[in-house]
Amino acid sequence: MPRLVSRATTRKHIMREVYDYSQPAENQQIVKITASKGNNLHEIETADKTRFLVSMPMRYRHYMWVKRGSFVIIQPIHEGVKVKGEIVRVLIPQQIKNFKEDKIWPAAFYDKQELEEKDDDNDDDTPMNTNRVQAMIEIYSDSDSSEDDPSDNDQSDDDDTVGET
Checking DSSP bridges between strand 83-90 and strand 51-55, what pairing results, if any? Predict the structure, then answer.
């Protein structure tokens, strides 16, 4: 007789798999979901712009959802004609960040802004923004000069005496 597992226990095991930060295996790849085709089939796009269908495994179907633009790790199915892979793991933003830090994230999935920032990080000879430093110096010099200027204090005393007379 098969042992029945409660829904809460199943969810616990699924979430443990989701928060697994290990890198994809050699035969697995990171892909982007481009469309949902129904019946737990999703169209994906690989880093080399190839598109095909992948399936969501039965154990994930009631516990997690993916939408267009999500990133997943898939395992190829060699005997598939239309469906050529199966989703192994849905990636959360923290996992994506870790993959980018470890430099295993496919270059095709970087945003243009991220690529520019990545290029900027490599430039050690970038000049400092002197306008920002100058503005800070002016702010500090204005506050210091008002405290040291005795003529400002004399004018305020004169205004008080005029009002009393």
Answer: parallel
Q: Mean pLDDT across the chain, nearest whole number?
A: 79
Q: Write out the E strands in the chain.
A: 29-38, 41-45, 51-55, 71-76, 83-90
Residue 41 buriedness (CB in 10 A; 0-12 / 13-18 / 19+): middle
User: Residue 63: phi, psi to the nearest 5?
Assistant: -115, -20
Distances (CA, A) of 132 to 117, 123, 135, 136, 142: 20, 20, 5, 6, 16
Close Cβ partners of 41 (under 8 Å, ≥ 6 residues apart):
53, 54, 55, 56, 83
The string of pLDDT tens digits covering residues 47-96 is 999 999 999 998 888 888 899 999 999 999 998 889 999 999 999 999 99
The model's pTM is: 0.65
3-state helix, strand, coil in the chain (%, to 5): 45, 20, 35
Residue recorded with tokens 């239309």: 82
